[in-house]
């Protein structure tokens, strides 16, 4: 288990403990929907388009009212309640946040630019929804999580107008050709952290690094041309980056006191070329302007299309080797996909994608870190720029578990430990528990469920969970190769969620019979290693590992009845069947299954049978109530895997019910037995509940029975010798089926031979419902001792027969 005891701020100390106070403001009056007739694309200040965004909400607000409200926000480091502000959501609703001032400018820089303010806040009703906000020369920016989605608020192109949209709806427009790499990662020779052991123990520390960001004249001109304009863009970007780095890494970046001296306004006189060559001159220029001792990490923003960074250079002689440029450097595609990614390299994070298409090709794939299928989806992956291996358009705003481990190693044990300002916030990390290891059949869905605890009051409600496969293997080159070959990663990462369980493949895909790129079932004999990463959203992170061993038994564990087009009878006992697929052995050892029933196509289930023998068939009672959206889920009672049936209908039975079995305290009357088949050259004597069979004779009752899953056949039996077959059974016709006859003694191989007769009179209780179910059965009584039998004529005595439920 990997744990890190770190936190930016103990959120539990900030959670509201009282009702709303007079200092709070009903901020819904701040916003009004704004629908100008001439808006066809989403444009920010200066007419700069948010590329690829067509789905958004437009609002307007009075800036002075918004600024006045935010000026009342207390400092995040102080106890107290934040100001209350209603933030817009793209679905035309609002969510109420408590907001605190949280400056990312060093005090001297903040004094120079008092109009630039940064804030942090959380959702009153769900504190794990949190985000960062700013007021700059360009207006108000909001970037926050809401129930698993990233919501953004950006200034629009018209006065007092704002755009409100989801990150996923802003498609990254790639400005790179096949010949131009998105970035080149340079390895700084001063990085002794390579090869160090993983972090084992939490250190309880928040690390703050002094960040110096230079901008080319072209970048500053893009945002208006003044130093304050360029610095405003830097503040918005780093404020957004800090939200991710604080939650995942307990790392905070503060802009240095003299950062304004690095904001260049004239492309003709600045010391940069606005190209990748600026990587080599940036450290030298920053050292010359503000001094090497004034910063811990340096970066440069420009408008060329690319990113370049030194690997693990923070605190070292090459600490300024970081560059990010886009010709449209606005929004999360710039902040997260590029800037957070490049700074991640400077903190020793390597690429995590396993694909090789387009930008994923060449030397960009890092074989020792390629844990994500295809393009990957997390910050250190390449979402959106790997052609048909793209899992999605943009990177999600969190780090893969491997990136967390790599960067944590660097800042705690590597070169990154040498210059951070370290503070102990007192936050305790969660403790993750990924659970036990299991063995499952190939080609079969499964669900992983973990758990976590947190000793900090209030933090349990904040915990989020991410299940990620943690296997390295051969690369892929297309969707067709992003499948199991015995070693490569086959399960992509998804955003942190409050649910500690994850189903493989995605539940919606199972229901809809579809597939998601980067998610494919294992088909080979192999081990799948998984990591559960638990975040307390305050910088506390805990990681625990488990392994799923996969055995290819030759077939998948599947439901065979009901299948597509078949129906079941509601309010009655039905026979269901499944392919056991070798799951009772092969190291899987699943002896029993549970059966769950859904009437709403899998949206919810209820348990209708537990501990059913895993023999491929069972009689289960389907609850009353008609449905056209029935589903059955059969899951191993002591394992992870399950099978989902096709969708079916369940209708009420209108036929009369079959006759009930005799009362359990009464034996079956055997006086009126009739001849059965042609085995009647022996004799019999019957008296009430007892029958004696002599020689070769089979008899059967004239009544019928209904056998349910819980039915048992109880009786007494004795035989004077071992003939060919002595036994008892149930039949639905004129012939005997060997899978419904129970051999109690005999030399011939026939029937179900799971019972041992030891002589004398012996009582038997056979769980017939575990072998077959249904209605219309007759009782058959067997003494098979024809000319081929052994010894003298046999005498078989059967008495006190009862069918018990």
Automatic annotation (TrEMBL):
Residues 1-22 form the signal peptide. InterPro entries: Ig-like_fold, MetalloPept_cat_dom_sf. GO terms for molecular function: metallopeptidase activity. Keywords: Signal. It comes from the Bacteria. Pfam families: Reprolysin_4. This is Peptidase M12B domain-containing protein.
């Amino acid at each position: 288990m990997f744990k890190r005891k770190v936190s930016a701020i103990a959120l539990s100390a900030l959670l509201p403990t009282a009702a709303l106070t007079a200092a709070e403001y009903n901020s819904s009056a701040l916003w009004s929907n704004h629908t100008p007739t001439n808006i066809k694309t989403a444009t920010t200040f200066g007419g700069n388009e948010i590329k690829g965004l067509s789905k958004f909400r437009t609002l307007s607000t009075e800036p002075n009212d918004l600024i006045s409200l935010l000026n009342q926000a207390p400092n995040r480091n102080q106890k107290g309640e934040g100001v209350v502000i209603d933030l817009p959501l793209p679905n035309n609703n609002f969510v109420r946040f408590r907001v605190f001032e949280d400056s990312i400018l060093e005090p001297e820089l903040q004094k120079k630019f008092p109009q630039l303010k940064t804030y942090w806040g959380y959702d009153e009703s769900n504190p794990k929804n949190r985000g960062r906000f700013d007021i700059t020369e360009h207006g108000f920016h909001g970037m926050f999580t809401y129930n698993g989605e990233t919501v953004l608020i950006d200034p629009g192109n018209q006065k007092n107008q704002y755009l409100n949209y989801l990150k996923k709806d802003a498609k990254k427009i790639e400005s790179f050709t096949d010949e131009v790499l998105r970035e080149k990662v340079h390895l700084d020779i001063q990085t002794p952290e390579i090869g160090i052991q993983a972090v084992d123990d939490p250190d309880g520390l928040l690390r703050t690094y002094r960040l110096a960001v230079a901008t080319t004249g072209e970048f500053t001109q893009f945002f208006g041309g003044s130093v304050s304009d360029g610095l405003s863009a830097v503040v918005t970007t780093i404020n957004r980056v800090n939200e991710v780095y604080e939650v995942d890494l307990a790392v905070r970046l503060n802009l240095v006191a003299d950062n304004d001296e690095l904001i260049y306004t004239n492309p003709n006189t600045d010391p940069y070329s606005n190209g990748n060559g600026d990587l080599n001159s940036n450290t030298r220029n920053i050292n010359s302007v503000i001094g090497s001792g004034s910063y811990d990490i340096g970066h440069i923003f420009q408008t060329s299309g690319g990113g370049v960074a030194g690997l693990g250079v923070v605190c070292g002689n090459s600490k300024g080797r970081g560059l990010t440029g886009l010709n449209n450097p606005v929004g999360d595609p710039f902040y997260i996909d590029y800037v957070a990614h490049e700074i991640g390299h400077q903190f020793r994070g390597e690429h995590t994608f396993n694909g090789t298409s387009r930008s994923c090709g060449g030397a960009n794939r890092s074989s020792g870190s390629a844990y994500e299928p295809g393009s990957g989806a997390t910050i250190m992956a390449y979402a959106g720029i790997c052609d048909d291996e793209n899992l999605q358009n943009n990177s999600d705003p969190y780090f893969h578990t491997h990136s967390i481990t790599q960067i944590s190693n660097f800042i705690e044990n590597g070169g990154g430990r040498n210059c951070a300002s370290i503070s102990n916030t007192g936050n305790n990390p969660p403790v993750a528990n990924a659970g036990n290891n299991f063995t499952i059949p190939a080609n079969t869905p499964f669900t992983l469920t973990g758990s976590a605890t947190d000793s900090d009051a209030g933090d349990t409600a904040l915990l989020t969970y991410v299940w990620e496969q943690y296997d390295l293997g051969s690369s892929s080159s297309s969707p067709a190769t992003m499948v199991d070959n015995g070693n490569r990663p086959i399960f992509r990462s998804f955003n942190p969620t409050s649910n500690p369980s994850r189903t493989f493949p995605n539940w919606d895909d199972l229901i809809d019979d579809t597939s998601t790129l980067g998610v494919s079932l294992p088909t080979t004999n192999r081990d799948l290693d998984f990591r559960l990463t638990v975040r307390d959203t305050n910088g506390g992170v805990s990681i625990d590992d488990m392994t799923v061993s996969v055995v290819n038994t030759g077939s998948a564990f599947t439901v065979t009845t009901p299948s597509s087009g078949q129906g079941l009878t509601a309010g009655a006992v039905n026979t269901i069947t499944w392919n056991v697929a070798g799951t009772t052995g092969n190291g899987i050892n699943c002896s029993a299954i549970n059966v769950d029933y859904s009437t709403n196509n899998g949206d919810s289930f209820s348990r209708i049978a537990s501990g059913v023998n895993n023999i491929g068939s069972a009689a289960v009672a389907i609850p009353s109530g008609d449905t056209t959206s029935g589903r059955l889920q059969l899951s191993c009672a002591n394992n992870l895997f399950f099978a989902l049936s096709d969708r079916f209908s369940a209708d009420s039975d209108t036929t009369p019910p079959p006759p009930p079995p005799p009362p359990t305290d009464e034996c079956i009357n055997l006086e009126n037995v009739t001849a059965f088949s042609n085995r009647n050259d022996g004799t019999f004597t019957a008296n009430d509940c007892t029958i004696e069979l002599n020689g070769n004779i089979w008899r059967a009752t004239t009544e019928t029975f209904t056998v349910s899953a819980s039915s048992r056949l109880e009786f007494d039996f004795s035989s004077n010798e071992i003939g060919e077959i002595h036994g008892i059974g149930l039949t639905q016709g004129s012939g005997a089926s060997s899978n419904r006859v129970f051999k109690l003694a005999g030399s011939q191989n026939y029937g179900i031979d799971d019972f041992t007769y030891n002589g004398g009179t012996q009582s038997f209780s056979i769980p017939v419902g575990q072998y077959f179910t249904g209605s219309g059965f007759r009782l058959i009584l067997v003494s098979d001792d024809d000319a081929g039998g052994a010894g003298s004529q046999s005498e078989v005595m059967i008495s006190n027969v009862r069918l018990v439920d």
